[in-house]
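Lecture notes, unit on protein representations.

Consider one protein chain, 126 amino acids long.
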Amino acid sequence: ASVLASLDLARIYYKYQKFDEEIPLLETASHTANHPITLGLTLSNLGLAFEAKGDCKKAIEYWDKVQTNPKLAFLHGNTLIKTGLCYEKLNQADKAEQTYKKAEAIPGEADASRLAKKYLRLLKKG
């Protein structure tokens, strides 16, 4: 229950760009989240908060935690797309391309695959 309350409060902090309040709240929640859904949402939202704050390296660290956890497969496509976008922001087009190709290849992830194909096309144009 406390993790869900933290996720709700974090959403409010995110909306009002209070990332310095949101991040410690979610970091604490990530240590107590014991269900794959709450853990996945907590880690994913931590990545979003760091990205919004302008720290893509730290965002990628949290999204990588999602990627390496097989129990969080339901978030893999989404976090791969976000990771690729952050790599683009970091001017690491090669890593962005690898990430998009990985997202494109996830079985059963039609939305992620479609987005990955789009971003790959845009990356090659850029």
